[in-house]
Design brief:
Length: about 170
């Protein structure tokens, strides 16, 4: 497992735990993280649904080591041979420390084990942080839905071939 540490360690010395599959006992922690990140993108009911169907919906989270505060979460749906990435959130106090990278890589690996051949997602064209993260992991843009979001932002459709992504990872030294 890749080690992560927070860049703002002096004021916020967080130590995220290794990613773990979440179940409905994590609903409150997910709602709280969602509030801190996006002001509540999903309702509590949506989080309950997301965490309540472990065969189709995979949610990985990292908690503050030894505590119950959720620092990051990454959720996707397995639909036939495809992982549809739904949401990735990292606590604002703990960004640029590699946590999203660790969570997403782990989710892609899990999806591969479940037989997924590709991963897809939609991201706002102005979300530079998310776009850079996805690009770093090998996603490429396949299309665009113009003015798709309420704020007028375009949605970019992104795609990753999971067999090629695994081969690249396997070839890396160390
Ligand atoms: C997008 C998000 C999940 C990234 O989390 P993170 O833990 O900070 O990401 P990482 O530390 O793993 O960064 C991986 C790479 O992504 C890119 N990246 C991340 N944040 C970035 C930023 N603010 N600006 C530019 N590039 C960024 C960089 O390439 C980075 O690698 P580097 O640090 O070696 O340069 C986080 O910013 C977030 O929660 N945003 C709000 C929710 C959101 O928009 N989610 C995505 C849509 S659902």
């Amino acid at each position: 497992m890749t080690e992560v540490g927070c860049s703002e360690g002096l004021t916020h010395p967080f130590s995220p735990s290794a990613p773990q599959l979440l179940n409905q006992s994590a609903v409150k922690a997910c709602v709280a993280l969602d509030q801190r990140c996006l002001g509540g993108f999903w309702s509590e009911l949506q989080w309950q649904r997301e965490l309540g169907q472990p065969q189709q919906r995979l949610c990985l989270g990292s908690f503050e080591a030894g505590g119950d505060e959720l620092l990051g979460v990454c959720c996707g749906w397995v639909v036939a041979d495809e992982l549809q990435l739904m949401l990735i959130l990292v606590d604002p106090r703990c960004r640029r420390s590699g946590l999203a990278t660790v969570l997403l890589k782990e989710l892609l690996g899990l999806a591969r084990e479940r037989g997924c051949k590709q991963a897809t997602l939609e991201v706002g064209a102005s979300n530079a942080a998310a776009l850079a993260l996805y690009s770093k992991l090998g996603f490429s843009t396949l299309g665009k839905r113009s003015r798709y979001y309420c704020n007028g932002d375009d949605a970019l459709l992104q795609w990753l071939n999971l067999s090629i992504a695994k081969a690249r990872t396997d070839n890396r030294p160390g």
